[in-house]
Design brief:
The complex is a heterodimer. In chain A, the strands form five sheets. In chain A, strands 2-1-5-4-3 form a five-stranded antiparallel β-sheet. Chain A is an alpha+beta fold. In chain A, 30% of the residues are buried. In chain B, 40% of the residues are buried. Chain B is α/β, with parallel strands linked by helices. The chains are: A alpha+beta, B alpha/beta. Chains A and B meet through helix 3 of A and helix 1, helix 2 and helix 7 of B.
Chain lengths: 772, 169
Amino acid sequence: MTFFRLDIKKKLILVILTTTFFSLLAGFGIIIFREIRSMKADMVQHASVIAQVTGNNIISELAFNQSESARETLERLRELPHVRTAFVFDDKNHFFAEFIQSREDRVPLPDLLNTESRFEGGFLHFFSPIVYKSNNYGTIYLRVATTELDRKMRDYLLLAGGVLAGLLAVSWLLAVKLQKIISDPILHLAGVARKLSRGGDFNVRVEWRGGDEIGLLYGYFNDMLDEVQHRKEERDGVQGELRKAQGFLENVIESMPSLLIALDEDGRVTRWNRATERVTGVPPSDAFGKNALSLPFLGRYCDPAMTVMKTRKHLELFREYMDIGERRFCMNVSIYPVEGGWGTGAVIRADDISEIEKKEQQLRQAQKMETIGTLAGGLAHDFNNMLGGIIGTVSLLQFRIAAEGVPGREELEKQLAMIEESANRAADMVLQLLTLAKKQEVSQEPVDLSLAVAHVSKICASTFDKCIEIDVTPAGGPAMVSGDQTQIEQVVLNLCVNAQHSMTIMRGEGVPWGGRLAVALEHLDADAPFCGSHLEAEEGTAYWRLSVADSGVGIDSRHLAKIFDPFFTTKQKGEGTGLGLAMVYNIVQQHKGFIDVYSEVGEGSNFNIFLPAARSDRPFGPLEKPDAPPTGSGLVLVVDDEPVIRQIACDALELCGYRVIAAEDGQQAVDMFKERAGEIDLVLMDMIMPKMSGKESFQGMKLIDPDVRVILCSGFKMDERVEELMRMGVLSFVQKPYTLKKLAESVQSAMAGSDRASDSSPRPAGKVENRL
Amino acid sequence: MAVRLLLCVLLCPFAVSEYPEYQIKSAYLEKFSRFVEWPSQNQGRPFTVCVFGRNPFDRYLEDLVATARFNDRPTRFKWARKIEEIAEPDLLFISSSESRRVEEVLGTVRGRPVLTVGDTPGFCEKGVLINLYKTEGMVRFEVNEREAVASGLKFSSKILKLARIVGAR
């Protein structure tokens, strides 16, 4: 393999010389071979002539057995010194005569069985028959020395060798010169390539040398360099941008106040931002590559992170308390799965909400105190009554003992029972206040909303102004959610207190206090239309709806957006802190629930709290796939000023097989009804609308068609206004938000009740279902 | 040297001691026909070998004629006891028994292409073309060259080279 180690110049020279050598050798070989054959043939020819002449001269000697004369004839061969021996045999192959040049040429008689002429041992052994006029007279054998031939051959080979050597020398000189034609451009290319690989300067180009393959190679090489340079520039550009973007992201991550920790699939740390370092005191260099289990604060999230990697579903953990160093932190922790070319992993983000939590706790406490303060007014009256009962009884007893002496046993027991009852009532009340004032951690325990509602309504009944009528619609069984009993009770209580205020202290001067507070619990399944109007709702989940409705002053639309902001209040100074609804919002959020509010100035407000029902407890049986809503046909006019609600209603009714047209307000609805009076089978109408209210619209339609079929819907509970409209001929009432099934059922029963014209006809089921 | 000589003697086919004299001589007759050329008019007919006088060849010549082709022609044998019987042969052997009548016989064939052969001393001088004789135990022959030219036969130099020439031109 040493050949392959030679440089290209030597290889080319070697190849050219080898080729030349073997070509010349073959050429010379053929020439020499032919020449020798020709010389041999000449010699044989020569011997043949000698043999024929000699044989011809001894024919008659053979014929007449004159060997003496034959010998004399043969003696003439002495003039040919290379003819060393001659033997003549007669036609019976018997020896007849001989000629011997010198003593050393005396050789044994040849074997006549093989009369083929041959070169052997430095002699030509030539046999020739002696024939005259087609008669065979015998055979002549000549032994001719090849000295001359050998000399000629030797000279010839020497000459050929010399010429071969000369030609090789010439071809070596030529090869040395000519190999440069091929090797120089290749070496040049190799030199450039070497420079490129060392220097990396892709601007250099090789000079173009011609149109042969090497020229093409140069062209391709240059093309390749162009491509490489282009890609390099492109890559450099992209790398620069990438670095910038990376740097930017790095800065974002590092400067984030959140703790960001990335783990690989084995739970080892691959990222540890500055916030994490600040909180834990562990520098990134110490954290990288370590298992999460071995690091402070991270250990408890190792297993959840593994689960997240496995399930690829992110995990949110709220209000995680942890002690790092001497400090106690409260954090919201999110764990996200991340996937990339490098494998799977997880990112843990922790937001330090210690300060917020502290403030919230203070807020909650302050709110609680405020609530208690609010209650205290009402409480004082009752408590005073009870104390009055006790003190009055005691002083009465004291007076009677002083005046009449110790009363009889019967009288004494009666008085003591009165004292005991009053004292017990007072003790109950204190116990309730204590329960509410108790500061508790957030827990996730089964909570029965029915109990909470009962508990709060009991407090309300005993503390609220008597002008407030409290109407509770229970769930008819336990209504289980998962959460914190105290917090939920506080939600209910806050809403009730607000409701009470809207019907009492918030009323204007001269307006009489009083109204109706309705608290209701209802179970519902979140179907598609429901989720369409409540983006926070999760489809397929069961919810408990807790509604607190009042007939108070209402909230105008400017304020409605702000009611959950902390410290926002419309109450008089000293009457409210602006914390109640903020707390309600926080608590409901923490319980994975949501709130919607319907309110109209002068009409009242309705707060709906939706809390996910605890799965284990479903009072209405296992959750089944929602039944297909009842379908029907006909043209329905949907009237609602809220575009989303209108759209949902249209979609839902179309889904049930109805044709639907829609109007944005009462005026438009009446116009449309007039236009298509005969066609419209049913009108689904919002009760409270700008321009023309539900009531006015209904009256307008009734003028056009006295038999108009109308279903009313509203965010409010069925109240006096609804009942008034029902008396006027509205078929039924659906409370918002409604489910697809409920709406479909109401529409179907309204459609079916063709004889509804008479007020005395029984009301459709849907109406009954939606009554409080 | 002695061995080689002995070998030569042993191998020599025509040693008189080994073959009867007239067997050799009949073979000589055939061989003469090889080195003599007859005119072309003779070529068309069979070659006739005629023995005049007492036949000294025993059966040898007749046997040879039956198997060999003289002058490359079909050959027949004829024995003539009278001159008239000689007719026109290609080769005429004149027996020594006819020494007294030899010139008479030659007179009938003179000037014609008839190869006359004898084995009697003095025949050649009398005009016989080839006359056989013995010397040192070997059969040799002499040729009357003048008569040979006259006869119209052409003698090859090869035969003349070995012969004793009588009556040179």
